[in-house]
Amino acid sequence: MLLIDCPHCGLRDEVEFVCGGESHILRPDIVASDADWADYLFIRDNPKGLTFERWQHGFGCGAWFNVARCTATHEIQGVYGMTEPRPVLP
Amino acid sequence: MMRLSHGGGIDRSRTLRFRFDGRDYAGHPGDTLASALLANGVRLVGRSFKYHRPRGIMAAGVEETNALMRLGEGTRAEPNLKATQVPLVDGLVAASVNCWPSPRFDLRAAHQIASPLFPAGFYYKTFIWPAWHLFEGPIRRAAGLGIAPGGPDPDRYVHAHARYDVVVIGAGPAGLQAARAAAASGETILLVEADFRLGGSALWRDGFDPDAAQVALDALPNVTILKRTEVFGYYDHNALAAVEQLEGAGPRQRLWKLRAGRVILATGALERPLVFAGNDRPGVMLASAAQAYARRFGVLAGKRVVVATNNDGAMEAASALEAAGAQVTVIDSRAGIFVTAAKGALGVKAARLSDGRTLPCDLIAMSGGWSPVAHLFSQSGGSLRYDDSIHAFVPDCAVQPVTVVGGAAGDLGALAIAPVWEVPGRGKKFVDFANDVTARDIAIAASENYVSVEHLKRYTTLGMGPDQGKTSNVNGLAILGALTGRGPQAVGTTRFRPPYSPVSFGALAGPLVGRLQRPMRYLPAHGWHVARGARFEEHGPWVRPTAYPLGGESWEAAALREAAMARSGAVLFDSSPLGKIEVCGPDAARFLDRIYVGTASTLKVKRARYGLMLNEHGIIVDDGVFVRLAEDRFLVHTTSGGADRIAAMMDEWLQCEWTDLDVVILPSTTQWAVLTVSGPAARDLVAEIGIDIDLADFRHMTWRTGRVAGFEARVLRASFTGEASYEISVGARHATALATILHSAGALPIGIEALMILRTEKGYLHIGVDTDGTTTPDDVGMAGAIAGKASDFIGRRSLLRSEALRTDRLQLVGLASDSRKLPVGAHVLGPDRASPGPSDGHVTSSVDSPTLGRPVALAMVRRGRSRFGETVHLYDMGERMTATIVDPVFVDKAGERLRA
Amino acid sequence: MSRYSLFSLARNALSGHRHWPQAWRSPEPKPRYAVVIVGGGGHGLATAYYLARNHGIRDVAVIEKGWIGGGNTGRNTTVVRSNYLFPESARFYDHSVRLYEGLSKELNFNIMFSQRGMVTLAHSRHDLDAQRRWANSMRMNGIDSDLLDRDGVRALAPGFDYSEDARFPVMGGFIQRRGGTARHDAVAWGYARAADALGVDIIQNCEVTGFDVGADGVTAVQTSRGRIGAGRIGLTVAGNSTLLANKLGFRLPITSYALQAFVSEPVKPMLDTVILSPAIGVYVSQSDKGELVIGGGLDHYASYAQRGNLPTVEAVTAGLLTLFPACSRMRMLRQWAGTVDVVHDSTPVFGASPVKGVYLNCGWGTGGFKAIPAGGWCLAHNIAKGEAHPLTAAFGLDRFASGAMIDEAAASGIAH
Q1: Of the N and C termini of chain B, which has fewer Cβ atoms inside 10 Å?
Q2: How many CB atoms neighbour CB C191 within 10 A?
Q3: B580 by DSSP, 3-state: which?
Q4: Which residues, listed in sequence order, are joined to residue B3 by a DSSP beta bridge?
Q5: B393-411, pLDDT tens digit by residue?
């Protein structure tokens, strides 16, 4: 049961949140190739370890934000804004 | 066995009556069911899972493997409870499980005779010929333990959340001291104890006064104590789950969801059996259990006792039993003499020793060493290591803020243990009593190369019974290790998972079951519909009128009558669940251009337009009419089921992708009641009830505000019936008043079913019914809007992929049939009319048309739009029928009626 | 291979069961094999078996990081069915069911395939309509299906809530009578024993650390037990597919999630059929041992932790009790989770990979167990012949660019 630090509301239980999957995926222009479009739609890093994903405090303030989280231990290493770049973490 | 005249934590001044297997007994407050049974001389309490061997009470706590009971009767019955964990109460009724007619005369005891044929994994090697199903029925009936209750549970369960700086689990001496020490800092402390008394081992050992410790803790305002509460799960981010047994008239159990700053595990240690022949006989007991019964419950479990041990820990038990009046002989394997067998079928009569002697006795108290209760530590992600000094797994590296104290940490004093994992000698030596796994079974697994600890567990079922291997784990893997030349550390242990001990499904589910599981949503005018005689069904999240049958009318007949009235008079349909999202801001039009297949930015104020929404895969996910309320303000209508989903989707695009757009999303579905007046007489009816909007200048697909029957209203001319329609939105609180007025003025209420008839006649799409997870705009003949649109929208790129451009896709068409209504879900047969064979599509909507007097249907058919006029054959669950492919619009193709 | 039978059991009983042979050997890896299968779960072991049996390729190693059958093969709810909507899926999964039907005899190992029927419940008229299409699709695909009315369901599952005000009224459903359950571990062990008897080397505790790829494709796997040369490689590593693909230099359309299941304490028979309620999000059956076996949806975020989360258990349990109130006083005994590789359209990713000589068998989502025999059958074909088996031709990686998805989200029952 994750404890997630909503940038607006502070530490809350995971049941208040919605996970939106991997973040920082660029949406290609309409002229993209089939392969590039398939990358955007389907291909994911899916790492075992640190991942960067977007979450929404759906049963709270409603804000979307980014979370750096380990998929093996579920440890959360940071929370940052939707438009911020991936943080550099140890 | 007998009750001692004094000592222990029981109240001899009061008597509690209880019933076990049909006989009446008495005990005292402070007893468990197990201690009371022992005090009454009941040794034989049940039969084992596989061989139906007679079994007695083996332990005094959570680790009990034999004394499983069905507690209570009728719908309050609970199967498979451990008698050692059931506090005795007056009137308690218990029964043995897995034996018939009684533990003493059990018909399935015949399994013991055939047991040589039933070693570990026997079922993988036989029952193959002629077929498994011929054997499976009898095996199923023989398996299982208790009988499940037959009816709904009359009791309630609740959930609670709490956060503490420190949660101490276990209120034995180590936990009590840890709680006291932690409390000194002023932090909030929760002390959780599974038993109904605090004290743990101090309830039956000397050297620590639990009552004094409790008094000290009770005086501290920052300490909370929960008794009869078992922590069964340790999850991420220091979350714990526990179940509290409640008493009295309220809920039966409470599930605690705890979040701890740090956790102190003081869960103690469990004694292990010795693995000798007949070690499962009634009257063979863990030494610590015999000590606990004597000291805590004042019950002497045997008068002539053999204490069999491989460590110093059992000497304390020997002294305690002797002090209580038993005649005690200690057989210490470290001195080279073992108890090799327990003799006596239904109860121990003697212990056979390795030196050839036979010692008559009525209790064998055994100690194979101690295993720290590291389950929760392992659940938390922490690793375990094998400690050679105590021959047990102990907590090693923690990954969460958790510390382990006392016996759980391996702090067990000087045991001087010298284990003999499998005592030499012939006979059935049980390792896992709950699942009847013997040392021989482990040897079979080893010889067959099931040598990984997980293979051992799965092949022999070691550790998979109701006790989850609490007493068998270390013995089992040490025996495997000895057979395969590995130490216990190399064999390793399986990772522990929740629950530590079984948890009722009622507690896990909590209060939100049945009617509360997913809230029903009622229309603002629900009561008014009830008064009109509506029959209701749940559609998406809403409870809505299906139809309003009159007298003895069926709802199907009512729907036909209502639909016919919509084509001839004026009807009232409650459209309140219609999704309503206001999209506001300078970039609202640009935003909607990206959301819709069509274009929003060219729409004039007070005008409305129909739009399709896709997902990024080009699949239709919603549709509806949107209105431009002002230059910078749109009202988006979604399907009733899509309202929440589409609002969330818009919000996600705005917050995550198009952060440059200045747009605000205002979901407002439930603020407004929407009452739709439809039909040729709709305009007159609306005029009659009083409206300050100029109806002469109020065309189809336009929008006005004004007052309707005195209420401030928004009115939209849009239609899902194919008739001229006025969608009147008023504040939700006015729904009933406006419905009453409209009804009085002559509008006949119609339900969903009539609406479905009307829209099917018109060929209007019902998302999720006519479409599925593969349907694109072109499939439903709505790709026209795309060609003229310059800009991108969600899903557009996916429509350019080869799959979307195939010419043999399913397309929305009408199906005309003369005789009978086509079944929804019937398939259109391919060119060779074979079934089984390739499908050419399926019927999606089908109604008897009151307007045309014949059935009409919509279908998705391969290349359907190029096949108008073709007769096709259909298949439905063995039946065949024919129909003709036609245009999907059956009524008023020109749309003159709705523009009236 | 020494044959198992009632006779062999009786003979061994006389000698105290001291002389059972190894079910499979534990050989040291050879320097090179014609084919190396990475992943000793059901799919990998079945692939090795069918390579030897169907194609005569016996120079095969199955290498496994831990112990065989320890991934999702040993962590599922053992349901076997082929009640799929689309012909591509239906044909494949029904081939699997047919192989399951003969598997105990084929392998001489009782996998306890029990065709007790698989019922999908309908709770609304819309469900009934959608299921009619579905049941008809199955029949069009040559697969048995029957519609059930409320009484038909009641006869199969008497303990459910059939009261008038039930939250999710049972209005009917449809059944695939050939569906059922099998003993999951036995499937892995049976294939292992049979493959071993045909000469396949099963190498446990052997973790892949990398691959050697030359101009002509893959040449070897690097492992914790050294380099093992390989002519061709099959990847059958559910829950780790992305990680091994990354070692080969390509990415996959997969996200890995935890899927949980749990069982009750054993009780006497109370449910004879496998029951799924898509609307409530729960499925339940009763094992031969007497335990209710219960599952539901995925945990809500990506995870490789192989452990489940409490909120999912709470939600699934609430659904279970809403449907099946008699279980309320029964107790959860064990709970576990597997890491499942989820693909957008709930259809596997199968066949040639971007690296020559490497063949994929992944992306099973929540439903890989039932696919084991056909997955092994088709991957063996693919590896032996160098071309896709017709049953898996539609499951290739190319569908993601063309958009030819086989969206079985509906057919997989539980939304994910």
Answers
A1: C
A2: 36
A3: strand
A4: B299
A5: 999 999 999 999 999 999 9
